[in-house]
Amino acid sequence: MRIGLYPGTFDPITKGHIDIMRRAASLVDRLVIGVAINRDKGPLFNLEERVAMVEEETAHLARETGCEFVAHPFENLLINCAHDVGATVIVRGLRAVADFEYEFQMVGMNRSLDNSVETVFLMADAKHQAIASKLVKEIARLDGDVTKFVPPAVKVRLLKKLGKID
Q: Among the CATH numbers 3.40.50.620, 2.60.40.1180, 3.90.226.10, 3.30.365.10, which is that of 3-126?
């Protein structure tokens, strides 16, 4: 079984994340969505909420693609998380050149820790390249419409979290 790991904070999960997951599903039999705890980022949604959103949004992807999706919270090194879940490939999404510079450094560090785990970069679809969770939260905070950026259920959760709806 080919197991991949797609890590992120998913605060919240966006259509860009889902696009990467859908395409990564063609490369692996099981895609573990590593939901990073990462206290330094100060996420809007707590870990349980982020895991729930990932599980909800990947349920239909599993039916659509035949790939198994598993949400897996983690707080350790990414390479150690890959070992924990049996992943031989780490999937990373790229939106722009700036993403590549950071990701290039991460790959080098991960390979020096364990060169048996490969990293695969998937470019975000053009219609999703500008989507960033941070920007989605800011747009919602300022009463902008995030419909184009997040799935409907995530939009509702986001607006409730920000006190915009009951």
A: 3.40.50.620
